Amino acid sequence: MEDGFGGLRHMLTIVFLSGLAGFMVAPVITDVTVAAVCSRPDDSCSLAVYLTGFQQVAIGLGTMVMMPVLGNLSDRYGIKVILTLPMCLSILPPVILGYRRDTNFFYLFYTIKILTALVCEGTVDCLAFAYVAENIQDRTRTSAFSILAGIKTISGVCGTLVARFLPIALTFKVSAISFLVALVYMRLFLKERLNDEEDGDHHHGDNDATMLAEPILNDTTIKARVFNKKQPSLKDMISLMKTSTIFVQALVVTFFSSFSDSGMQSAFLYFLKARFGFDKNQFADLMLLVTIVGSITQLFVLPTFASAIGERKLLSTGLFMEFTNMAIVSISWAPWVPYLTPLFVPGAMLVMPSVCAIASRQVGPGEHVKLGKVQGCISGVKSFGKVVAPFVFSPLTALFLSNDAPFYFPGFSLLCIALSSMIGFLQSLMIKDVPAPTLDKPINNISSEEV
């Protein structure tokens, strides 16, 4: 590779700028929503909860379809080309709220956000993971994933700081500018592949030998072809699921993890606002602590422990920490209790890099062109979890924050989220640790099959 991890600097910059734009909106959007649609600023307001839940469902349905398609298109036309449209569309929603935030403009933002997020939500992250998987060798891929996720978390720190100290109107304007800068930077500097020259030599010389020497899957019998280049993404996903138990298990863990994460988006901030009266500044303070600890975890803890204990153990550890976190927050008895959250942030930061690393190992280095489809499948399952969660957690949150709750337990929905993480944890324990393949064994296997 061109400069090792240094060759990824342009993609990391794009992830940082787009993450910065997204994260600076997160602490203020709850207050903006409640102010626009609720009768009182301190109202628990079921309408705000349901609007957020419906938005998650609509966006999740769109991205569940679009992420595998975008992953497939990126394999065919290139990551840089496919990133252009979603990065353009991402600029529109913050521009609307940067102009005005009354009820009419909020609903305009709400509609445009849903429509644009169908192709924007998660696209940068999905294709960034595919870019890393394509350009980084297998043995260092987990560390590269963790660095990528760490940069995203650092962007969260910076975005939250911006939201903490800027007025709300200016926050949305700066967010739009950051999206624009990311788009321009991507078009000017991002290279489609970091090792084009090496690939050229490789394809002209030893391509056939390498394809024979690399297994398509690590834990199954070698097959001549798993994918056809022009198969639809859904068929690609089904083909890989049929031939890799580990990939199926990784998708199950991905579902329950995203189900929990989406549930938290439906419940957590509204729980804090209704239970303890949190506002924009307190949301920002809490998110700032979370992102600082998360960035340290992604950049320093995960790369160290990934090589020491393996992705599967990291995954299990992360899911168990997520369960513990939500279980504690669900019984919060004082405003300071949610500030314990950063103690368990490393858990959430460990999950998706570990899942992506485990899934990418199910495609041999000779099939790097298919890594976009693998990451697209993972993103599609994540989106499915995000679709299902609001149907469960939005009504549950609204019910237990209202005066009509069957019993007094404002954090009951958070406890259910914790149980979802526990299911993912139990599934992760069933994933086998599969060592990296050697070249001799695949060659021997293929030779014997040909005989």
Automatic annotation (TrEMBL):
One GO MF term, please?
transmembrane transporter activity
Show the Pfam families listed in the entry.
MFS_1
Q: Which domain of life is it from?
A: Eukaryota
Show the CDD domains listed in the entry.
MFS_SLC46_TetA_like (cd17330)
**Which PANTHER family does the protein's record reference?**
MAJOR FACILITATOR SUPERFAMILY DOMAIN-CONTAINING PROTEIN 10, MAJOR FACILITATOR SUPERFAMILY PROTEIN
Principal location class: membrane
Query: Where does the signal peptide begin and end?
Result: none
Give the membrane topology, semicolon-separated if more than one: Multi-pass membrane protein
Localization in the cell: Membrane
Q: Which SUPFAM superfamilies does its entry note?
A: MFS general substrate transporter
Could you tell me what this protein is called?
Answer: Major facilitator superfamily (MFS) profile domain-containing protein
The organism's lineage is: Eukaryota, Viridiplantae, Streptophyta, Embryophyta, Tracheophyta
What residue ranges are annotated as transmembrane? 12-35, 47-70, 77-99, 105-132, 144-166, 172-190, 246-271, 283-302, 314-337, 407-426
- What are the protein's UniProt keywords? Membrane, Transmembrane, Transmembrane helix, Transport
Gene Ontology annotations for the cellular component aspect, listed alphabetically: membrane
